[in-house]
Amino acid sequence: MSKFDVVVIGSGPAGYVAAIRATQLGLTVACLEKETNKMGKPNYGGTCLNVGCIPSKALLDSSHKYVEAIENFGLHGITAKELSIDIPQMIARKDSIVDQLTGGVGQLFKANGVTAIEGSGRVLAGKQVEVTKRDGSVEILDAGNIIIAAGSVPIAIPPTPIDDDVIVDSTGALEFLEVPKRVGVIGAGVIGLELGSVWGRLGAKVVVLEALEDFLPAIDQQIAKEAKKLFVKKQGLDIRLGARVTASEVKDGQVTVTYIDKDGEKQEVFDKLIVAVGRRPQSQNLLAGDCNVTMDERGFISVNDYCETEAPGIYAVGDIVRGPMLAHKGSEEGVMVAERIAGQKAAMNYDCIPNVIYTHPEIAAVGQTEEQLKADGIEYKVGVFPFAASGRALAANDTAGMVKMIAHAETDRILGCHIIGPSAADLVQQMVIAMEFGSSAEDIALTVFSHPALSEAVHEAALAVDGHAIHIANKRKRK
């Protein structure tokens, strides 16, 4: 029986980062991965690198460049005639990026001394891990500590069973080899909007069916309203809220979708249907009944603030535990757990986790929304600065959106920052750092920002919190 200080189940962003950090701290580590690629090799990197964050961003960037060339090159004096898009080449580029990064994880394992093991893991009593390999053979690993990082999978819904041809999940939506004429997307969340944007930019007519009445209810509603206006009026996405899908029928290479909204039952016909209603933890067959690790009714493993389960020496991180299903959240949990196993007093600030939707314009946020603060009865003040007043954004012909900063009314402590606009993901990271250090809006207002730069919009929003913005007219304060 092989013995390790740490056995990690899953090599996604939470698992592989935990494994590498643990070896850096002098621990012996094995990392299990059950998925394999087309070549039969382990698919290191989990959902994020293989069928999630990375491949979707590759397609988002390719499709954005295409629509930029079609619609906006002329404004710069650039003439591009007879533009076309080679979809197989676009997909091949995406695949090559995935291969490079997943192969890179394997090289990092070798460089750091992580023992990579191919097979699915199951947690047994006594901190042992049962590994079932592809050939059916079974091996038992003895672990000083176990880190469960099994990740998540797309949620399937009964009215639209996945057939990997006409009806696909988020993975299948990354593999189209031609642009469908009509694409249906079930779910107006992060995944649905990003994938809908890709195929909409490339020429598909995209209809998004969302069961909820509100658009992006979890984000600040001023930002959500601006996003919906841009997606619908400027980009042509047909977003239908309060539309609950009840049935589907595939016939002759098309799918007829039946849904119900406030006006009654309706139908739409699509060439492709993308089901993007969220993800669920991949926890089936993961735990032996006597291992003393518990999970809730939705399949999430129960942990405390330090990702410790109820069984001593067994931890769980990433998508399989509470909190947002974000790669960076899982990675930092992996680091925290590795360091705690090594005897350090590591902790994680869950109040400062950024969230991003990689549409164009990007949507990014950290901290509390205005709606949350109102519900909690917290007095606050707001500063907003539009990118339309940014010289750098004007020069780049990328002026949609705004920066919204929220600070405590008395202490001036930054409570949240919400951005829709160019490079929002990078801009909001400035505020993640600021909030981690307990900054006030005045701290940001007194900081020197480069000119001309998009980040000046963050500076001006901080100034606007107290009515001191320079490059827009400030709202008069009520006496």
UniProtKB/TrEMBL annotation:
UniProt-annotated catalytic positions = H451
InterPro entries cross-referenced by the UniProt entry: Class-I_Pyr_Nuc-Dis_Oxidored, FAD/NAD-bd_sf, FAD/NAD-binding_dom, FAD/NAD-linked_Rdtase_dimer_sf, Lipoamide_DH, Pyr_nuc-diS_OxRdtase, Pyr_nucl-diS_OxRdtase_dimer, Pyr_OxRdtase_I_AS
SUPFAM superfamilies linked to this entry: FAD/NAD(P)-binding domain (SSF51905), FAD/NAD-linked reductases, dimerisation (C-terminal) domain (SSF55424)
Between which residues do disulfide bridges form? Answer: C48-C53
Note whether Repeat occurs among the keywords.
Answer: no
Q: Does the keyword Transmembrane helix apply?
A: no
Q: Which residues bind NAD(+)?
A: G187, A188, G189, V190, I191, G192, L193, E194, E210, G278
Of which family is this protein a member?
A: Belongs to the class-I pyridine nucleotide-disulfide oxidoreductase family.
Name of the protein described by the UniProt record: Dihydrolipoyl dehydrogenase
UniProt organism field:
marine gamma proteobacterium HTCC2143
